[in-house]
Write a structure and sequence with these properties.
Layout: H1 7-14, E1 19-25, E2 35-41, E3 48-52, E4 54-56, E5 59-65, E6 70-76, E7 87-90, E8 94-95, E9 102-105, E10 115-118, E11 148-156, E12 159-160, E13 174-180, E14 187-196, E15 202-206, E16 211-212, E17 215-220, E18 226-229, E19 231-239, E20 245-248, E21 256-257, H2 264-274, E22 277-282, E23 285-290, E24 293-295
Parallel strand pairs: 1-9, 16-18
Antiparallel strand pairs: 1-5, 2-3, 2-6, 4-5, 6-7, 6-8, 9-10, 11-12, 11-14, 13-19, 14-15, 14-18, 15-17, 17-20, 19-20, 19-21, 22-23, 23-24
Length: about 300
C-alpha cells in the first residue's frame, strides 16, 4: 500500500471525539533517540499519521481514532518530521485487536520489524498509577519501590521470545530446570529483561560480544546473546553490583543473586517449595498460578 501523509486529514482525525489508546514496547527500536508514531488506516484506503507517541514508564502511547481499524507503528528519525520520509523502521500492516492494546517489538527483522499484541494494564493503563487507589503506594507504576522482575529471553524452542510468560520468570535469581531445544548447532541464545514488578515490558540486558559457554555479563545497551547447549538447565542471575548482571548455568561463588541471596541451593529450595505451577480457567480466562502469585496468559502478574 502506498502511504501518503495528508496534513488536512490528520487535522480532521485529531478532531475525532473517541479513540483507543495503543501502547508500544519498542525493544530494540529504542536506540538513537528515535521517536515513534502511529499511522492509521482502513483496509484498502490511504491513512494518516498521528502525533508522536508519548512515553509512559517503559512504553509509549498514542491514540487511535475509532474510525480506523488498522495501524502501523513507525520508528522515526528524531531530526525529521512525522512522515514516511523520516521513517527508520516500521511494522507490518496490523489489524488492531478488540481485546489487546500493547504491541511489543521483538526484533529488527528485515524490511519490517516483527512483534506481538498483548494487554497493557487493565484495558490500557497502569493498574496502580502513582499509588492512588493501589495496594502498593509510592512506587512508580504501582509497585513497591525498587521491586523488579527478571525474565529469561532469547531464541530457543525454534522461536524468538516475544511477550514473556511465567515459565521464564526468575525467582530469587534462579530459573530452575528450564528445558529447551536449540537450533542446528544445538544451542539456545539468551539474554534477560528487567521489569517493574508485575509488568511484562522493561529493559533488556544483553552481552556486548557473543559468547557460547556457561556464563556472560549482561548490560543495558548490549546486543548479543549467550549461547547455551540445549537440554534442561538451571539458570542463575547475579547482580554484579556495577549496573551489570551475570547470567550463568553454573553456580559462581562469591556473587549475589538478584533476589539478594548468596546461597543458590537455598534459593532453589525456596523456589521449588513455592513453584507448583498450575494452569486453570478463572472467570473464563486462562490463569497461571505459581506459588502465591497469579499471572495472566502473557505472564503479567495479577
Amino acid at each position: 500500500m502506498k502511504k501518503i501523509f495528508t496534513l488536512f486529514a490528520a487535522v480532521l482525525c485529531g478532531m475525532m471525539m473517541n479513540a483507543k489508546t495503543l501502547y508500544l514496547a519498542p525493544g530494540v527500536w529504542e536506540a538513537d533517540n528515535a521517536k515513534f508514531a502511529l499511522y492509521y488506516f482502513n483496509d484498502g484506503q490511504e491513512g494518516v499519521f498521528g502525533d508522536y507517541m508519548t512515553k509512559t514508564g517503559d512504553v509509549y502511547q498514542g491514540e487511535l481514532p475509532d474510525t480506523y481499524t488498522n495501524v502501523i507503528f513507525v520508528r522515526l528519525n528524531p531530526s525529521g518530521s512525522i512522515s514516511w520520509e523520516s521513517k527508520w523502521n516500521q511494522t507490518e500492516d496490523l489489524v488492531v485487536p478488540a481485546d489487546k492494546n500493547l504491541y511489543t517489538i521483538s526484533d529488527w527483522g528485515g524490511d519490517k520489524s516483527p512483534g506481538e499484541w498483548s494487554v497493557y494494564g487493565n484495558g490500557g493503563g497502569n493498574e496502580n498509577p502513582g499509588g492512588q487507589g493501589g495496594e502498593t503506594p509510592g512506587g512508580q507504576g504501582g509497585t513497591q519501590s525498587g521491586a523488579k522482575d527478571y525474565y529469561l529471553r532469547g531464541y530457543f524452542n525454534g522461536v524468538d521470545t516475544q511477550v514473556p510468560t511465567a515459565e521464564e520468570l526468575f525467582e530469587n535469581g534462579v530459573l530452575a530446570d528450564f528445558t529447551f531445544t536449540g537450533d542446528g548447532n544445538g544451542l539456545g541464545y539468551f539474554y534477560v529483561m528487567e521489569c517493574d514488578e508485575g509488568q511484562v515490558v522493561g529493559v533488556d540486558y544483553m552481552l556486548t560480544e557473543y559468547i557460547a559457554g556457561t556464563h556472560g555479563t549482561l548490560v543495558k545497551g548490549g546486543n548479543q546473546k549467550l549461547g547455551v547447549q540445549a537440554g534442561t538447565v538451571t539458570f542463575y542471575l547475579y547482580d554484579n553490583g556495577d549496573g551489570s548482571l551475570e547470567l550463568s548455568t553454573e553456580v559462581i561463588a562469591g556473587k549475589t543473586l538478584v533476589g539478594g541471596g548468596e546461597d543458590p541451593n537455598q534459593a532453589i529450595n525456596q523456589v521449588e517449595s513455592r513453584k507448583q505451577v498450575r494452569k486453570m480457567i478463572i472467570d473464563g480466562q486462562l490463569r497461571i498460578v505459581r506459588g502465591e502469585k497469579v499471572f495472566d496468559a502473557t505472564g503479567r502478574q495479577l
